[in-house]
Amino acid sequence: MTRSDESWIPPEATLICGIDEVGRGSLAGPVASAAVVFRRGVYIPGIDDSKKLSPSRRLELFPEILKYSVSAGIGYVDSFLIDSWGIDYAVVLSMYRAITSLSIMPDWILVDGFPIPELPISQTAIKGGDGLSHAIGAASILAKVLRDRVMEFFDIVFPGYGFAEHKGYGTAEHIRKIKEYGPTSIHRKSFSPIKELINELPG
């Protein structure tokens, strides 16, 4: 379970924003980042790294996070841009999109992993922050729930691939479906094993 963010922020900071991304390693669909702003001292019991929580628990916490947040935002970058510019660029862009969608700007940002380049807001990067920081953990839950909804929509658009179940990640069944039907327009053509499968196609 995450802990209070007091040790990572200065005394003068009153609006704290957590940022995290999901979908970096997926073979299909967008990468998504969420930004969630809390007033200093707000703490919601049960928040943790979204990967450690069941889908039902994430859905229970989702409205609680929105209820107690000052502002929240989401940023997506699609598979076309991921293939064109690379996943690292896409992650940073999705974080910028999440931040710029906020209705209120924070005093301090806590981000999972590495610092966000050229960010005009003070920040602290925390390795493994989604399991350590309350604000980052909250952002990871928002990003996961919202990206999952996108992949469930793509399951309707592209039936047969199982996007609602695996959410685009490289399960054995997903890879089997790609080999059987070929990649869709939302598959990341620069990712293995899709890249190799495309190179093997005739013509």
Properties at a glance:
single chain, 203 residues, 7 helices, Nucleotidyltransferase, domain 5, 16% strand
Mind explaining what this structure looks like?
By secondary structure, the chain is α/β, with parallel strands linked by helices. The chain has a single domain (6-200), classed as Nucleotidyltransferase, domain 5 (2-Layer Sandwich), CATH 3.30.420. 39% of the residues lie in helices and 16% in strands. The protein has seven helices and five strands. The chain has a five-stranded mixed beta sheet with strand order 3-2-1-4-5. It is elongated and about 60 Å long. The chain starts with 14 loop residues before the first strand and ends with a helix. 44% of the residues are buried.
Based on CA atoms alone, the radius of gyration comes out at: 18 Å
What is the makeup of the main sheet?
Answer: 5 strands, mixed
Q: What is the overall shape?
A: elongated
CATH top level label: Alpha Beta
Oligomer: single chain
Present the secondary structure layout.
Elements: E1 15-22, E2 31-39, H1 55-68, E3 71-77, H2 79-85, H3 87-100, E4 108-112, E5 123-126, H4 134-157, H5 163-166, H6 172-181, H7 194-200
Parallel strand pairs: 1-4, 4-5
Antiparallel strand pairs: 1-2, 2-3
Helix pairs in contact: 1-4, 2-3
